[in-house]
Each structure stands twice: as structure tokens, then as C-alpha cells.
Amino acid sequence: xxxxxxxxxxxxxxxxxxxxxxxxxxxxxxxxxxxxxxxxxxxxxxxxxxxxxxxxxxxxxxxxxxxxxxxxxxxxxxxxxxxxxxxxxxxxxxxxxxxxxxxxxxxxxxxxxxxxxxxxxxxxxxxxxxxxxxxxxxxxxxxxxxxxxxxxxxxxxxxxxxxxxxxxxxxxxxxxxxxxxxxxxxxxxxxxxxxxxxxxxxxxxxxxxxxxxxxxxxxxxxxxxxxxxxxxxxxxxxxxxxxxxxxxxxxxxxxxxxxxxxxxxxxxxxxxxxxxxxxx
Length: 280
Description:
Layout: E1 5-7, E2 10-16, E3 19-25, E4 31-34, H1 35-40, H2 46-53, H3 56-63, E5 75-77, E6 86-88, H4 89-101, H5 105-126, H6 133-144, H7 171-197, E7 210-212, H8 213-223, H9 229-238, E8 249-252, E9 256-261, H10 262-279
Parallel strand pairs: 1-5
Antiparallel strand pairs: 2-3, 3-4, 4-6, 7-9, 8-9
């Protein structure tokens, strides 16, 4: 295995409130942090940093001209007890910002506190105010505490669309998702089966079977000179030709319609003829 490179670098410790964070300056003047420390600041393991580095969001940055070394690389810093997995400050800020958007309260407080401190420093410089390092640290410490930055409580706590580096699914979760998907497919299969088994007719073929209910009502109304379709329907009920008589055939075209078979229609016509003769 290739040994990690050793750099002669200066190391310093900075403090985010009460949280120590080691900073190393490489020979090219670039600052780097430890991935493990960056993750632990917001109570995450280094694994979350690896998920972040594999996310679509992080990879898309390289398409926009972002440059960064391999986050899986180890560097031996002179004076350090063991090699570290370095991370540029830019990437550390992106990592904290992503977890802030994902609802991590510590990341939210950290991002807002650092932003607030930067703005205060710019304002202090504009007004030639020179707070001491101790005062700056105390302000940062207060903002990072659970009592600081009260508006944080009003921020949305979940932006799951932003969280592109979730922990891997467990085997149980995968099995459950598979069972749900199989059940969904079975329901779709049964639905298709029911639709396919339903008796359907082409409208042009219905005439071979019989005639429509409205046409039957019109025939009776005109033949017996009734005043309305309702009277025609009552007449059909009287002679056991109503909807529920069992003499109608239900067919499906684009919706359900009732058709009176020709044999039943002839029977109904005979009844009408008899009634007409009696009327005369």
C-alpha cells in the first residue's frame, strides 16, 4: 500500500465557541481541516462525510469548475500523531450548509453563527471598531449554545429533498419495500384481469343483440299515445318489463347501458298491439 504523503505544514487550533478545530496550512498556502473533526462538530461520524462526497450535489460542483483533491486520500502532517483525512475549508462549509438545510440543529446554529460573525467583522471594520479575540470567541460561544440565536427555532427542520446522502437502507427496509412493490403489482394485475374479463361490445354490434331502452320507451309512448316516457316506463313495469325484470341485458361500451333483446321486444310489441286493440 502506498504510504501517505508527508507535508511540512504549520498547525494551529482554532475554536468554534468551546469546540477546538485543528487547521493545517499546506505548502501552497491552502488551509485544510480534518474530516473527522468537521463531522464531529455537528455530532456526525466521518461516514456522513463520505456519503456527502458521493452525493449528486457534491459531484455536480466539479461540473461547475470546482476543484478538490480526493477526500479518501490520507495526509501525514509533520507534528501530527497520525495521518488525517484532509478537507478544504470550502468543502467543510458546503458540508455544514447541506446538513443545516437537512434539519440538523447544530449545523443550523453553526452556519448562522459563522455568517453572523463574518457580517459583524465587516461592520466593525467599516466603523473601525476593534473587538478583542476574547470578545469574538464569547459571542460565537453564545450563538452556538442552545440559548443563542433564538430565530433558529422557527426555521424548517426538514428539507429532505436537499438530503442527498442518506444512510444505506437496512436489509429489513429493502425487504419491506420489495413486498410493498410486489403487492402493488398484484393489485394492478388483478385490475387488468377484471377489465379484460368484462363483457364489452362495439356499438355497431349492439343491434345484433337487441335495442336500447330509450328506443323501447319511445315506441311504447308513440304506439299507445301516452303523454310521457314516465307513463311508458310504468306500462313496462306493469307487464314485467322493468329494469329489474331480468329481461334486459347489461352491456358495456363506454359506460353501462341496457339493451332489450329482440325476442323480448317482440313480446312487448304483442302486448302493445293487444292494448291498442282494446283501446279501439
